[in-house]
Design goal:
Distance between the termini: 63 Å
Number of strands: 10
Order of helices and strands: EHEHHEEHEEHHEHHEHHEHEH
């Protein structure tokens, strides 16, 4: 019997749940095909299949889906509506399944998470596994193993960043944004490489222990209800006294980010530079802005003796 081939777009929530997804399907015996790093061609293809108003991250996602069309049996497209009562996610995540289904002629495997309807992650994964024809006990076993692996990796990343914060004497910059922006080859990776080439220790907003999230986010934005943005804001509050500067990285046009970033810019006194990637402009202007920002931070360090 041929193994089921599951295609996973390396975009959007892959950077938060990619380990969980790949481990789950591998435990079930499926073949996994993850799309390659984002290329300019992917961005262009994704733009062809997206409305003009879609954010760059969404256009990139559609480009990754297009890349996978002829390479797998199913493409994983989750629908995540609500992860916590009283909070919301960007409508892209609830509309993702319908957008892909109505754009491409391809079999989709998906799951729904909506806490308001008591559809949690465990329920979502078991439902998805049953739809693929696997036995319930195997699905539960695979999910638990995948979840343990994901949790262990997240803890290691947080511990490693804590150790770096405690030991490095380099200029430290918090790169704050959604993981799908921070780590995408087209969006955040060029900025990370630029910072590292300039001797900067990059601190990542997603490598943050959410133990005190609710308390920390309220110091900056008491009434924010965007789940993923709350973690970014809380990480800014958590790290702002320990870093030399902050880069707020977002893509155009992201509504939740525009609101959350404005709150950060108003409330936080640590030097901050907002960087917005639109996919159309060149990198020269961004490079110049970041290099100027680094020069300012170095001068501040010399002046204040940090």
């Amino acid at each position: 019997m041929n193994k089921i081939k599951i295609g996973i777009p390396k975009a959007l929530l892959f950077y938060q749940y990619g380990e969980l997804w790949t481990s789950f399907f591998e435990e079930l015996g499926c073949d996994i095909i993850v799309s390659c790093n984002t290329t300019r061609e992917m961005v262009e293809n994704g733009s062809r299949f997206s409305v003009d108003e879609a954010c760059l991250a969404m256009k990139i996602y559609m480009g990754h889906v297009y890349y996978l069309l002829d390479k797998c049996d199913y493409i994983l497209v989750p629908r995540i509506i609500c992860l916590k009562k009283g909070e919301k996610l960007c409508t892209n995540f609830s509309a993702l399944y319908d957008l892909v289904r109505n754009t491409f002629d391809k079999k989709i495997i998906h799951y729904n998470i909506d806490i308001k309807k008591k559809e949690d992650e465990f329920y979502a994964f078991t439902t998805m596994g049953l739809e693929l024809g696997f036995k319930y006990r195997d699905i539960v076993k695979s999910y638990r193993k995948a979840k343990e692996k994901q949790t262990a990796i997240e803890r290691r990343k947080i511990s490693k960043q804590k150790a770096i914060m405690a030991s490095t004497r380099k200029l430290k910059i918090l790169l704050a944004g959604h993981p799908y922006n921070l780590y995408d080859e087209f969006i955040g990776k060029p900025i990370i490489r630029l910072l590292e080439e300039n001797g900067v220790e990059v601190i990542y907003s997603d490598q943050y222990d959410p133990k005190y999230l609710e308390a920390e986010v309220k110091r900056i934005s008491p009434h924010n209800y965007w789940t993923y943005n709350k973690k970014i804001i809380a990480s800014v509050e958590h790290y702002r006294e320990s870093v030399d500067g902050i880069i707020l990285l977002t893509v155009f046009p992201c509504g939740p980010d525009s609101l959350s970033n404005e709150m950060v810019l108003r409330q936080v006194k640590t030097p901050i530079i907002p960087i917005i990637i639109d996919g159309e402009s060149g990198n020269a202007g961004i490079i110049t802005r970041i290099e100027s920002f680094l020069d300012i931070l170095e001068e501040r360090r010399l002046h204040y003796g940090n």
